[in-house]
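Apologies for my clumsy wording, but could you write out the amino acids of a protein and the tokens describing how it folds?
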Amino acid sequence: MNKAGGTAVGLSGMDGRLLMARPNPNSAQLGFVGDVDRVDPTMLHPLINNGHIPVIASVAADEAGQSYNINADTVAGELAAALGAEKLILLTDVAGILEYRDDPNSLVKETDIAGVKKLIAEKKVAGGMIPKVNCCVRAIEQGVSTASIIDGRVQHSLLHEIMSEDGLGTMITA
């Protein structure tokens, strides 16, 4: 980001107690994997207001100081909600949510929370896409207007998503 002209500032969720963690219910099997317990974005406001781009590692500690690794998409969604973001965009290595997992031409361009829950119940959303979709739903439930899952391998995908009416991936709304 700095090389491209931005002013990135590297942080972790542990810095300034930006994120507080709790153990994931499966942490006994997974090791030190956690979930976001709460977010305090206070330290981010001066950085953002001064033109800096916070780059946040998805590591946080619990009240006792134990560190946990947290899913990065989940952290992004929680931060978007805490910052009052209008839109959450997740860059991934697939086109978005597919109606049929093995058919790249079955992209779901837009859906709402009920539609996403139906896709999960029908097992059309599975594997690594579930945490992405769940964090989008949670962010929207906390006030983010829309969440999109787009293919970061496509050149200028982020610009296309932000600047065009049609977007590239899947947009989820309330």
